[in-house]
Fold each of these.
Amino acid sequence: MENRRMNETFEPTLIAFCCKYCAYAAADLAGSMRLNYPSNVKITQVPCTGRVDIIHLLKALEDGADGVYVAGCMEGDCHFVSGNLKAKQRVAYVKKTLSEIGIEPERIDMFNLSSAMGPRFAEIAIEMTERIRKIGPSPIAATADRDNRQAKEGKP
Amino acid sequence: MIVADRKSIQEILDMVKTCSKILVVGCKGCVTVCNVGGLKEVQILAATLKIARKKDGRPLQVDEALLERQCDPEYVAMLKDTVYDYEAVISMACGVGPQFLSEAYPDQRFYPAVNTTFFGGAVAHGIWEERCAGCGTCIIHYFDGLCPIARCSKSLLNGPCGGSDHGKCEISKEVECIWDKIVRKKMEQGRLNDLLDVVPAKNWQTARDGGPRRSRREELIQHG
């Protein structure tokens, strides 16, 4: 973590859970439109944001993500009626949990967009990357890095 | 079912603050149904504890286990090979769980992760309400299936008190006056006269007032 802090340009790792019907398609569109967005964002496609559970969000943070966001359809437009509203409640739960254990709740968020909103997808990626850059590295990332390294080296 | 609420994460963190390796044990019974201590909740608690301790630079190894029930010795026995590998064990079952575990494994420390609240059911997704007080002498048939012991704030047996206000109890606008409901149901069904019989004072000895209770079924007891 210290090394990451000392770097002048801290490059956060962000995990984005993107619905295949909107945000993931919007990411495709952003690509087709040759829009730039930060490579810090690692996209995970989900069939609906309603598939994203609290445990997925927590695991991403536990394993060292500096920020996590869920990008689903516009409210009222979910392909599965209310998956995005369920995701919104789960994101709110994780925000509350993070506050309770003294971690910035801004590290996680929920966004709504349609598949036609390629520029908005890029905008969200930039917004979240900038936000996490300002907040700084995740306080759990250093320990997670060490754990991940040890796991790779086969140490207990 | 037995309904419970999870304790705050800070309270649970305090319980295990000196530990570096713990086990979180869930229960597939009531607490799974009320979404507080089943597989998913065990995973969430374990992840949250690990995150909190990583943040403090004192990582905590949290292993997860799930028992069919924590209120039966044969299921509790399934932990026998691993239970002493940990500095402490957190039980996500109702208050029965940590006690059965403590009795089975006297040399281990068990902590409750939930506050056990009442016997009830889900009235909507995410909302549970009390329906039974476990008084030991069921009388709901006198009140058309509505229990004034569990659902009247004063457990009154002979009609509502002066705190009944437009179908709500004076303790909270969210609590219905069960006596209002009982009287309305009796009127709708033309059986209001049922309520003219005075219900005598209840014998509370079958409830907690008689001390800890025990149920014995001779036909089920295995001898030898």
Amino acid sequence: MKKTGKKPLRTSSKSPIDQRIINLAKEKKISIEEAAKILRRAYILLEHEKDKIIWVKCVS
Amino acid sequence: MSYERRIKLIRRLFRVIERSRIVKWLIIGMFVGEEFYQVSAKTYDIDLCLFLDPEEERLEAFLRSLVRVLRIDPRDISPWSQFMERIRRGEILVIEPTGPINFHIDIIPITPVHKDYEVFRDAFNNRTTAHWRCIQINIPTREYWIALKLVGFREKDKYHLVEMLRLYNILKIRINVNVLNKVLEKYPYLKNRWEIILSIAKKDYNLELTEEGYVILSSSHDS
């Protein structure tokens, strides 16, 4: 069988990735990394709407 | 969220706290509710309160260690003096990890000018020690956890508290009403808010809190 080099999205219950991230990636046709980033940031915005915050990002 | 990644991130945070030997800290929020007090809600962050009343000598070393261990972008914390100044002013530090994870860390500096300083300080003074995956952590007691939820009192806090009562009814978990009442006597605005929560639980689910601290189905049915 020829390998395509592209890993399929893992959606089983054993998936290490939150199903919501996978679904968002599918819906918006973006990568898992990108979907995780926008979802995570949406939650931060919701949580800290009224707060004074110092928002820092990890690099790896 | 990636469960393993979340665990790894939390473990790193707790290890840094442990190694830095800071003393005045408390984990609050839904992480505590979910892990220790059987509150049925999923959380997307972990909240660490740091008490700056006054600031601990090791606080700055703790933060330096944390930014190193979590590999925080140096550009986000430069210049360091300005970053520390903002922390000292009480601004919340939000740490966003990278990768396929829907979770973040909130570090909340509690200074004496914080609007709810006294409740937070009381929660810290009456804290309990819990174990999370063999790591010892400071958390509020169940009653102070409720009080802190009442401090927030957003719609989701109300929802979490009512869900907690529903679950306590099924699980027959007891709230130490004497302790809770003592806390609420001290803060009348929180007492009013707790009464609102109890009235929602009664109206929507016919639940009531007994004097012994159990959540039971009410025998009287209001029409």
